[in-house]
Specification:
Blueprint: E1 15-16, H1 19-26, E2 30-34, E3 49-54, E4 67-71, E5 79-88, E6 91-95, H2 105-108, E7 116-124, H3 129-138, H4 144-152
Parallel strand pairs: 1-7
Antiparallel strand pairs: 2-3, 3-7, 4-5, 4-7, 5-6
Amino acid sequence: MRTPGSLQAKKEKPKEASWLSLVKVLAGLYKICKVDGESMSPTLSKGDIVIYRALEKEDLDKLKGKIIVFIHPLKGKFLMVKRVKEATTLGIEVRGDNENSSIDSRQFGNINKSNLIGLVEYFVDLSSSENRSNKIKMFGLNRISDLTIFFNS
């Protein structure tokens, strides 16, 4: 038996980062942003790193349901990571996947297209010490500080 709300579409998760995605970061084709908070849980967790690319004109028509990086409309250079709920000519409505713990369009209204920074394509799950250890091994690094240097270079 289905309950109210059970028909909600499955929320798409970005792909796990691979060597190719990291090469794109190093080549300057993609950028990174660290998740700080639980507003995108369970899709993304505090400590995860998202890898995003600049938005292209054709992306603007297909944003609904996608995870984006944008400039907070009230705090200037502060970057946020949220899912697009609706994109209209009046702006873009964003929500965190964990709506009970999210500051989003319900508080600050729709965001302008000029605030859009990029479209999240990949993520690196660093939310637990086990995941951090596995990623360090996967990328051939020796310790977490090497991973931090790798992502910040």
